[in-house]
Amino acid sequence: MDQRMVAGFAPAPPAARMENHGPTMARVAMQSGNDLFARIGSMVAYEGFIQYESNPTAMRQAVAGRLSGESVPLMKCQGDGLLYLADYGADIVCLPLQNDSLSVNATNVLAFDAQLEWGVQRVKGVAKFAGQGLFNLGISGTGWVAVTSRGIPVVVDCGQSGETCVDPDALVAWSTGLEVKGKRSFKASSLVGRGSGEAFQLAFSGQGFVIVQPNEDSTDRLNAQPQN
């Protein structure tokens, strides 16, 4: 094979613990004693010696998540080498946390360092708008997190933009230091018989960022019944 034909796809030497190899693949530099939690089935390749196992603690938290609708099926990865992760061609964002806290939609969690603290948490301040409340996966500490996005996401710096309002179905993650509240607004689609005329959003303000994907879960729209 002519090596020049594939040279452009060869991985560059690692520059960080976790980084992108193209927009839809994450590469993790694995080292003994520096374990990783990754979504089950996300491994697409690895170099070196890396082992995978279901972690009892992680699985208990996954079961707790199912009770709130936020299931996170995880495996524990350990060893030495390079680990490549992907999620059916979704875009991937690798985030370094420095004593930070992040709230992530469970369906967008790809991987995170095992030393980080994590667990299912209720999003404060939105229960009266979202019925039983909104649950996310809270991740905090110092380490790396990889999240997925259905399309190239936008990362909004709320400290620069003032209040930022996001459709919950398009929301990927946000800094937990932000103030969050629910809002309702008139929805123009009600003029053609779709929905009740009100849309629910989450409004963020303060110092931190919000990650938004250019895609929404269509379940609510498919299940919505026209109002007379």
TrEMBL record:
For this protein, the record's InterPro entries field holds: AIM24, AIM24_sf, Trp_RNA-bd_attenuator-like_dom
Residue spans crossing the bilayer: none
Q: Name one Pfam family in it.
A: AIM24
Origin, by domain of life? Answer: Bacteria
What's the protein called, per UniProt? AIM24 family protein
Could you tell me which species this protein originates from? Streptomyces johnsoniae
